[in-house]
Design a protein that fits this description.
The chain has 16 helices and 17 strands. Strand 13, helix 10 and strand 14 form a beta-alpha-beta unit. It is globular and about 70 Å long. By secondary structure, it is of the alpha/beta class. The longest helix has 18 residues. Helix content is 36%, strand content 19%. The strands form three sheets. The protein has a nine-stranded mixed β-sheet, with helices on both faces. The protein has a six-stranded parallel β-sheet with strand order 14-13-12-15-16-17, sandwiched between helices.
Length: 488
């Protein structure tokens, strides 16, 4: 099958969060199964160009409609982790993708609306007619709209569209000028059945457009699919998802075990397996040495997270002090898109700078993340909501016990050591329900207690987690079933 992924991210070249990992992991799995997969991305100036092999201009005469004119673009081709990737470089005076960051600009909706039109224009001009176009998040929500109403009448009748919602907190709500920009008449779309936003009737919703016009809609875990259809986690899109529920479902994300696997990981101090689990503690020693923590008989509690409300930033802060007060060392790796939150954690870093049991790294470092997963004993994920979450699945592969809030994909993957009906060999972590200090303390306290008082049971919990298969094998099969379904 010929599949084209259209996405704002693909790890490791263009990655902000889990979206980049998902596009990379799913594309690699589909390729491994014998499908022809290509990825179309913006050509950002802030990409990791060292992770793109053989980058060269492959198409130099792409003129993309923009309002009543055309913008010249070049298209580059390169290999990212074995994946065939096309990068669209815009020469607009608006400088769409040379901003030094991927997102966070006032004209983000305009930038990615242009990318949607440019991606389809490139496919049309380059005579690419895949069986499936798989679009990701609000940034590509206009692709199925444009395909159906502009490119299908021009003869691009072959592709079917699968559209994946990664996070409904961000929906691409914008004014009708964005439709005019890409050549669509706003009057045709400003209705509740199409793109009109459910909260602001004078605005359009790009994610809603993707839901309405695609052939199938997925989100990244079964639990999150229910949450966004039947609760406030839907952020106003509940009705649209209900109306289109016959073509909507949740597919749990996977982890790329070619990247996240202690057996082969080049970033860890000592590789290990279930059978050589004692070697994990060489990584604990190396992690302490790298971060100037004292070597002591204590568990390491870690957080690897973006620091914002979704990830439970206040509970992360509380969990840090709770861990330190209860005989643990604590490591944080992450930063915040909000300057005041970043400043707050920099203040904590200075406050705790001389504490030999604590290290806060207010940044993101991929290589350090690997060592933390390998060296930590527990990882805390106290999310307000979590569409899927890869952190807990990666942690389990490394024998690190997840302590999570029971929402979204966290609830689909972590099963409490004490309060679940599953047999003990299927339990793999600690879960709490309340989005409050008491919730974090209840689960983290039980994990710490097990580490100190019943080390043999803690080790069994580690092994249980390592045995789970959260690779892309099962999700890859689910997506191929969806693709075959919408092709019929």
């Amino acid at each position: 099958m010929y599949i084209v992924m259209i996405s704002p991210e693909c790890a490791p070249a263009a990655k902000v969060g889990g979206l980049g990992d998902v596009v990379q992991g799913l594309s690699r799995e589909l390729s491994t199964r014998g499908n022809a997969v290509e990825v179309i991305l913006p050509k950002y100036d802030c990409m990791r160009y060292d992770r793109i092999w053989g980058l060269q201009k492959t198409y130099g005469d792409l003129w993309v409609p923009y309002h009543d004119q055309h913008v010249h673009c070049d298209v580059y081709f390169g290999i990212v982790d074995g994946l065939k990737c096309f990068f669209i470089e815009s020469h607009s005076f608006k400088n769409f993708f040379n901003r030094g960051t991927f997102y966070g600009h006032q004209d983000d909706t305009e930038r990615f609306a242009f990318f949607c039109r440019a991606a389809l224009e490139f496919m049309w001009k380059a005579n690419k007619h895949p069986e499936v176009i798989h679009c990701h998040d609000w940034q590509t929500g206009l692709v199925p709209v444009l395909l159906f109403d502009v490119y299908k009448p021009m003869g691009m009748t072959h592709p079917r569209v699968c559209y994946t919602l990664h996070n409904l907190k961000h929906q691409g709500v914008t004014g009708e000028h964005t439709l005019r920009q890409v050549g669509l008449n706003p009057a045709d779309y400003m209705t509740p059945e199409r793109l009109q936003d459910n909260f602001n009737h004078g605005a359009i919703n790009l994610m809603k457009g993707g839901i309405v016009y695609s052939n199938f809609v997925t989100t990244v875990s079964p639990r999150y699919a229910d949450e966004i259809k039947y609760s406030d986690f839907g952020c106003g899109l509940q009705h649209a998802l209900y109306v289109h529920s016959v073509k909507f479902g949740g597919v749990l994300n996977g982890v790329d075990y070619n990247v996240w696997n202690p057996e082969i990981d080049p970033c860890v101090a000592c590789q290990y397996t279930i059978d050589t689990l004692d070697d994990k503690y060489k990584n604990k020693e190396a992690l302490r040495h790298r971060l100037w923590l004292r070597q002591d008989f204590k568990p390491i509690v870690a957080v690897i997270s973006r620091l914002d409300h979704q990830k439970g930033v206040e509970l992360i802060r509380h969990g840090m002090f709770y861990a330190l007060a209860n005989g643990c060392q604590f490591i944080l790796l992450g930063s915040s898109p909000d300057p005041s939150t970043n400043d707050d954690f920099w203040g904590l870093k200075h406050q705790l700078n001389d504490n030999p049991d604590c290290h806060l790294e207010i940044s993101y470092n991929e290589e350090l993340a690997h060592l933390i997963y390998a060296g930590a004993d527990m990882i805390v994920i106290p999310s307000a909501f979590e569409p899927c979450g890869l952190t807990q699945m990666i942690a389990m592969k490394y024998g690190t016990i997840p302590v999570v809030r029971g929402v979204g994909g966290l609830a689909d993957t972590v099963f409490d050591a004490d309060y679940v009906s599953k047999p003990y060999h299927e339990r793999n972590g600690y879960v709490f329900d309340g989005f409050d200090h008491a919730g974090v303390e209840s689960a983290l306290g039980r994990a710490i207690g097990l580490w100190y008082s019943y080390p043999q049971y803690f080790r069994e919990l580690m092994v249980n987690g390592m045995r789970y298969d959260y690779s892309w094998n099962h999700p890859g099969g689910h997506y191929l079933n969806i693709y075959n379904h919408i092709k019929e």
